[in-house]
Amino acid sequence: MNNSLLYGDNLPIMREKIATESVDLVYLDPPFKSDLNYNVLFKADGLTSDEAQLTAFKDTWTWDSAAQTTYDELQNTSNVTLVNLVNALQVGLERTPMLAYLVNMAIRLIEIHRVMKPTGSVYLHCDPTASHYLKILMDAVFLPTNFQSEIIWRRTGSHNKMKRWAPIHDVLLFYTKSDEYTWNNPRRPYMLGHVKEHFVEGENGSYKTDYYGNVLTGSGTRGGESGQPWRGFDPTAKGRHWAIPGKIWEEAGIEPTGLTQHQKLDLLFEKGFITITEGEAWPMYQLTITPSDGPAAPDIWAYQPYTEGTVFGTTEGVDADVRWLSPQDAERLGYPTQKPLGILKHIINTSSRPGDLVLDPFCGCGTTIAAAQMLARRWIGIDISPFAIELIRRQRLEGAFPHLKVGVDYEIDGLPTTLEGARMMAESDRKGFEIWAVSKIDGIPNDKKGADKGVDGRIPFRPDGKVAKFAVVSVKSGKLKADDVRSLMAVAKREESSSLGFGVLVVLNPPTPGMKADAASAGTVEMHGNRYPLNQILTIEEILKGKKPHLPLIDPTVGYRKKANLADMQGSLL
Ligand SMILES: C[S@@+](CC[C@H](N)C(=O)[O-])C[C@H]1O[C@@H](n2cnc3c(N)ncnc32)[C@H](O)[C@@H]1O
């Protein structure tokens, strides 16, 4: 499958469009069962807070007929453990919102398991609200033996919560489909204090162990060769035994399987990792490190502010590469629950190879897509919000990778490309259709209609090249009414200080001659030597052909944050 951005519910999409055993890595960041609805907040001077926000997605659950249908469907899966588990949860939790959430997740986990290659990995991002239930579902789908890690990610600075520990972490459950999977040995840099205490400066920025006489031994005596003397050194006599740190083998690039303890020591001695000096109490082992070395990356990812300068080889603080996004972070696109590129890069770098296929079935504003593209992986992103898909198209793809061409380098699927498709979307998801139509003509969609019932969005333009003004947009997907144009003109008039009187009516069905006459009667204004009609009617058919409203200097970037920072781009497949 090509790089693909797919609009819609991920369950039917995965079932119908993603082949069995085709995906190398899945990252999913579904709703967490937070009982909240999330809004996109646009940054647009001149619009009120209501005008500049849009519901992005809902994370509220009820036990309704849809939940019951999913529950019934789960009874027919071939995974008996999962069926038994869901039934047990039903007994324990009863038909509550939590059970509704869990059955929704369970049925999707089955599909995720199906599409993963036998060597695939999956990271489920959640939080303590439901992580304990999700882990048992993951155990049932992926098997407990394929559970690899529970990662604790520090997602924020601090919270003031009365009478409980400030909740500042998310949970990532890492499972694989089998015990053979891609693992690129991630490292964390040493702390500078550790390096200064245990190492001395070597050549070219490297450091080496100063003296680690007994590092080849462990405390306590042992039988067998581990306790026997080697080259004149007797560990048992000093209450110790031979024990060689795994790090030495990695550094030496040797796999010591099949060797006895003494043979391993011999091999290291021959390779120069062990020196024997007369008069020393122990054979000496020397480890050389550079800033790219470090201990194995742990399962706690916690950026620590104000630790800059304490990490070996960098001026950044502890875990700076997985730091959370601050409210004003340059990376932010304004999409709620957006995750930092850093954690996605960490996961993708560790659990996949260039060219591998990465799937994010709840892709939001496309953090996974951006990270995968930067790291030369192939990608599939799915989201049920048409706004999220449009945001990714505009900011993550066209904005950040202008050399990539839709239809050539990637596909966008599920949003209408034909009039018939638009009609179907308007029938099945009217609100989604309106959001899509407004985004398509570079507008800021809005669903908090307030007093102006018919306003579905506003198009930013800069008639003087500086201050943004906003033409009001109304989308009509149903039968047109005789006064549709006049109502819109009344709103544009009322908002004249911000709209300059401009209104754009978007219609799915052809406008009547009366409507056209009404629009024409609104007149035109002259700006910079051009005439602009104050009221414009655009049909969806015209919009699909690329037509935009005729306004002076439309600025599609107003309201949207900057595009993702590409300074650290590491290459691209395309
Ligand atoms: C927590 S957000 C993901 C944020 C994302 N990781 C990012 O960095 O932007 C969850 C997303 O899942 C989407 N979503 C919820 N239910 C879905 C479904 N059934 N199919 C596809 N997407 C869904 C929502 O629209 C929302 O964008």
Explain what the structure shows.
It is a single chain. The C terminus is likely disordered. The longest helix has 19 residues. Helix 1 runs parallel beside helix 4, helix 4 packs parallel to helix 5 and helix 9 packs across helix 10. This protein has a nine-stranded mixed beta sheet, sandwiched between helices. A five-stranded mixed beta sheet has the order 19-20-21-22-25, with helices on both faces. The radius of gyration is 30 Å and the shape is elongated. Helix content is 30%, strand content 20%.
CATH topology of the largest domain: Rossmann fold
According to CATH, what is the class of the largest domain?
Alpha Beta
Portion of residues within helices: 25-40%
| Number of H- or I-type helical stretches | 17
Strand order of the largest sheet: 15-6-7-5-2-16-17-1-18
| Shape annotation | elongated
Poorly predicted ranges: 562-574
> End-to-end span in angstroms?
15 Å
Give the CATH superfamily of the largest domain.
Answer: Vaccinia Virus protein VP39
Whole-number mean pLDDT: 90
**DSSP E strands, number:** 25
Number of domains: 3
Structural class call reads alpha/beta
Hetero groups in this structure are: S-adenosylmethionine
Question: Topology of this structure?
Answer:
Layout: E1 4-7, H1 10-17, E2 23-28, E3 36-41, E4 53-59, H2 65-74, H3 80-93, H4 97-115, E5 116-126, H5 131-142, E6 147-154, E7 169-176, H6 192-198, E8 199-201, E9 207-209, E10 217-219, E11 240-242, H7 246-252, H8 261-271, E12 274-275, E13 284-285, E14 288-289, E15 300-301, H9 341-351, E16 357-360, H10 367-374, E17 378-383, H11 386-399, E18 411-413, H12 419-428, H13 430-440, E19 444-445, E20 457-461, E21 469-476, H14 484-494, H15 496-499, E22 503-507, H16 513-521, E23 524-527, E24 530-533, E25 535-539, H17 540-544
Parallel strand pairs: 1-17, 1-18, 2-5, 2-16, 6-15, 16-17, 21-22, 22-25
Antiparallel strand pairs: 3-4, 5-7, 6-7, 8-9, 9-14, 10-11, 12-13, 19-20, 20-21, 23-24
Helix pairs in contact: 1-4, 2-4, 3-4, 3-5, 4-5, 9-10, 12-13, 14-16
The structure holds S-adenosylmethionine.
